[in-house]
Amino acid sequence: MIRFLVRRTVSTLTVMLVLSVVVYLVFYAAPHDPALLVCGKGCDGARLAVVRHKLGTDLPLWQQYWQFLHGLLAGRDFDAGTDITHCAAPCFGYSFQTDQPVLGMITARLPLDASLTVGAAVLWLLIGIGAGVLSALRRGGIGERALTGVTLAGMAMPVFLVGLLLMMLFCGYLQWLPFPTYVPFTQDPSAWAANLVLPWISLALVTAASYARMTRSSLLETLAEDHIRTARAYGLGERRIVLGHALRGALTPVITLLAMDLGGLLGGAQLTESVFGFDGIGRLLVESVNKIDLPVVVGVTLFAGFFIVIANALADLLYALADPRVGLR
Amino acid sequence: MTDDSVLLEVADLRVDFGAVRAVDGLSFTLPAGESLGLVGESGSGKSTVAAALLGLHRTGGAEVSGSIVLDGTDVQRASDAELRRLRGARAAMVFQDPLSALDPYWSIGAQIAEVHRLHTGSSRRAAAERAVQVLDRVGIPDAARRAAAHPHEFSGGMRQRALIAMALACTPKLLIADEPTTALDVTVQAQILDLLHELRVEHRMALLLVTHDLGVVAGNTDRVLVMRGGRAVEHGSVAEVLGAPADPYTRELVSAVPRLDARREPSTATTGDVLLSVRELRKEYPVANHGLLGRRERLAALDGVSLDLHRGEALGVVGESGSGKTTLGRLLVRLLEPTAGRILFEGRDLAHASERELRPVRRELQMVFQDPLSSLNPRRTIGDAIADPLRVQDRAGEAQARAAVGELLERVGLQPDWYGRYPHELSGGQRQRVGIARALALRPKVLVCDEPVSSLDVSTQAQVVRLLAELQREFGLTLVFVAHDLAVVRQVSDRIAVMRAGRVVELGDADDVYENPQHPYTRQLLAAVPVPDPVVEGDRRLARAALAGSVAGSVLQ
Questions:
Q1: Is the pLDDT of residue A17 over 70?
Q2: How many other CB atoms are there within 10 angstroms of residue B18's CB atom?
Q3: Angle of the B398-411 helix axis to the B382-394 helix axis, nearest 10
Q4: CA dist., res. B476 & res. B311, Å (int)
């Protein structure tokens, strides 16, 4: 167990280091000068040099990167000659375009993405696993064919289409729900849920399809195994066989899928955020890329990478807990 | 017929899977407390019959007709609920592969307790106690603690015992055992069969034993029914059917069973000089890491083996699973690199030779593998598979290779124009012939066969063994025959090496080893082999009981 944690921590750090190097390289190679953007119109040579110095873009690439690492571990100061901005450790960078530390920008948006993702995940697990089990058990029937059709449609439908249709129906015509704006849970739990219900449903509908397919095929595979035949030969009923013996084994691959999806979405659900007008991490990333706000892009990318690696480690942990044959190494 | 003493009555049973008729008009009865062996080769429909007795085809795509009356229940007409009350309670099934037949996620005790609770409505605690009780009865040591273990933590023999314990949980009137010992080592097989025998006497259970092995039937059932292509070809007492078979198929089957006591002609080509020898050969594999720093433990699959292989002789290597016999076979042809020791072939040490140095030697050392299906590429024709070594080693041209393949195919008993066939179009025995042809393509000096017939039916087995013996004489091959089946090994070997736990415990002339075994383990192995003669088997059961105490550590595998 300790060994597993040590190994996972080391590999997480390695992945994040590599990620940061790649992001740095890509942006260094990009044809824009970030200093020019910060400096604005009517910028003269002397002022540009000051801005460059403050951003650190006057230094060679490896020094810029070194300063970034240093800031991450020990904090750093951004010195523009006249004013000094301090960014405490862990410093993910400082956005001069918005004059904010990157970490603050991310953590301010994290509750939104966490609410969105976790809520939707609960829904899509219920829909996906439920539909998967039903279609595995009613193989070949009309209900199964209809379910397969719906899941396929769900996979084919982009979240912005589903989201817009749902909003048109429930917020426009029926006016049962408010047009979504994010209300923090701590402020008003019922308003939080009412505003998130449509985003949850649309994200869940689109994602549930792959869970239904995976649950179905995995359950069918498990049901064909010899120990299921043993259970039948000893008089166990179908419900007991499926719920007690088959489903547990069938759901292990679903754990891995869930971890990947959760990790990915926590690092920003761009499409869903923009359909519902949420200012989340995904939107932050898109805007920063457009504005060439390098520190923010690096920060968000690292954060997203971090979530994915952590989610994978959790998946392995759950896998080992679920399956007695799997050891943690 | 409403005779109280008849427990099971099957009349005109037919089972169809789509267009395939698996069972075709089978009828038999089984009186309470008696035992019947259902024997046949693969595809004879014997397992299909076993499953039909519990109505297990209802959930599959099979069509069942005829009548099955089991302990007063009409299996064909019973409702699902009635059938469930029968299954496991009054008639219980013991399946073949004990690893896959148990739920990997549940502890063994919990699986047995679940069955008991289901049928008796007992409390959780009472069911758990019953599970421990039956586990203890089938010989699981420290049953109270081991009941909490999962199937993967049990050895093959212990899992089979656990399955029998599950069958025993509700003390059924009928035990249906479908190849209950096929996946097990011969000494473990003997223990399991002896256990079944004891339990049957103790609880006066009836037994339906489904098996391909006539030896297993001989010692464990009163009557036997021989099946072929879904029909009964012969039905009678064990002594009659095995002793004086009336049907030609049964006669063929009985004569195909390899006999432990059959001497063979020694290989003619033996010259006595040493062709290949190994000295203090050792092969280790890393196993699980433990602790924080990952202290790497190593397991010795082969633990210091020395032996000489004489030119033109046939050496049999026998042992149970985990004895290191396959590792030795692969080291002899240098498919594996030894951890320590020497492999001397014609005076050169191949132990740590590079792949490039080995290239020219490879043609002299060839191998036939156990599973002919997985050792042939399913996407390539058998002709290409056989021609590959010729193209690689001899740089043979297309016409030349095709001609050579034709000859080889004919020599191993296949049609010479089968170059373009694919492995799936062939039967198991034919595929193994392809494997042999491929190994012979380069006219090797040494041929190592690793369990070449263990996946084949008895009659096919006999043919392939005969072919190997012929080829050995014809090509003057030096043959190493690795197998777990002592009777099969005797048919092809001049000398025998008996292996156990990575070492050779006995090495000598075949006749000496079989007729006058020196090592207690060899004696135990020989005593465990089932013999297709009910009288002999009865004596052997007593002999095994006497021997059991003399070999420590192997009683419970």
A1: yes
A2: 8
A3: 120
A4: 8
Q: What is the pLDDT of residue A183?
A: 81
Instruction: Tell me if B292 and A6 make a contact (CB, 8 A cut-off).
Output: yes
Q: What is the CA radius of gyration of chain B?
A: 25
The CATH architecture of the domain made up of A105-322 is Orthogonal Bundle (1.10)
> Distance (Å, rounded) from C-alpha B8 to C-alpha B175?
11
Q: How confident is the model over B271-296, as pLDDT tens digits? A: 678 999 999 999 998 765 554 455 56
Does A6 sit within 8 Å of B118, measured CB to CB?
no
Are B188 and B156 in contact by the 8 Å Cβ rule? The answer is: yes
Share of chain A above pLDDT 90, in %: 8
Q: How confident is the model at residue A319 (pLDDT cuts 50, 70, 90)?
A: confident
- Euclidean distance between CA atoms A43 and A63, whole angstroms: 26
Nearest to A324 among B56, B105, B114 (CB): B105
Closest CA to A282 of A292, A291, A272: A272
Cα separation of A139 and B532, whole Å?
46
DSSP B336: S
User: pLDDT value at position B383?
Assistant: 93
The C-alpha atoms of residue A89 and residue A77 are separated, in whole angstroms, by 11
Kindly tell me the sign of the dihedral angle through the C-alpha atoms of B104, B109, B115, B118: negative
pLDDT in tens, B13-65: 999 988 889 999 999 999 999 999 999 988 888 989 999 999 988 877 789 99
Q: Locate B203 and state its tokens.
A: 């609880």
With a cut of 50, say whether residue B555 has pLDDT above it: no
C-alpha–C-alpha distance, residues B301 and B291, integer Å: 23
Question: Band of the pLDDT at B2, cuts 50, 70, 90?
Answer: very low
Cα distance from A235 to chain B (closest Cα, Å)? 4
Q: Identify which of B192, B171, B5 has the alpha carbon closest to the alpha carbon of residue B98.
A: B192
More confident site: B184 or B349 = B349
Cβ contacts (< 8 Å) between B95 and chain A: which residues? Answer: 226, 229-230, 233
Q: How far apart are CA A291 and CA A97, in angstroms?
A: 9
Backbone dihedral region of B501: left (phi > 0), alpha (psi from -120 to 50 degrees) or beta? Answer: left
Task: Please tell me the distance from the alpha carbon of residue B461 to that of residue B446, in angstroms, as a whole number.
Answer: 22
Half-sphere exposure (Cβ direction) of A242: Cα atoms closer than 13 Å? 16
Task: Name the more confident of B322 and B26.
Answer: B26
Please judge whether A325 and B88 are an interchain contact, meaning their C-beta atoms are less than 8 angstroms apart: no
- DSSP codes, B17-51: ETTEEEEEEEEEEEETT-EEEEE--TTSSHHHHHH
Domains and CATH numbers, chain B: 274-519 (3.40.50.300)
Q: Could you give the CA distance from residue B213 to residue B537 in angstroms, rounded to a whole number?
A: 13
Amino acid in the structure at residue B493: S
Cα dist. B386→A158, A181, B221, B394, B418 in Å? 53, 71, 45, 13, 11
Cα gap B343→B280, rounded to integer Å: 9
**Taking the alpha carbons of A17, A22, A25, A30 in that order, is the dihedral positive or negative?**
negative
**Domain extents for chain A?**
32-91, 105-322
Q: Complex ipTM above 0.90? A: no
The alpha carbon dihedral of B388, B392, B393, B397 has a sign of positive
- Identify the DSSP state of A246: I
- State the helix-helix crossing angle for A294-322 and A252-266, rounded to 10 degrees: 160
CA distances (Å), B423 to each of A91, B42, B240, B427, B450, in order?
63, 18, 40, 8, 19
CA distance B46 to B217: 14
Cβ of A226 within 8 Å of Cβ of B88? The answer is no
- Identify all chain A residues contacting B83, using CB atoms and an 8 Å cutoff: 235
Kindly give the residue spans of alpha helices, DSSP state H, lying in B230-280.
Answer: 238-243, 248-256
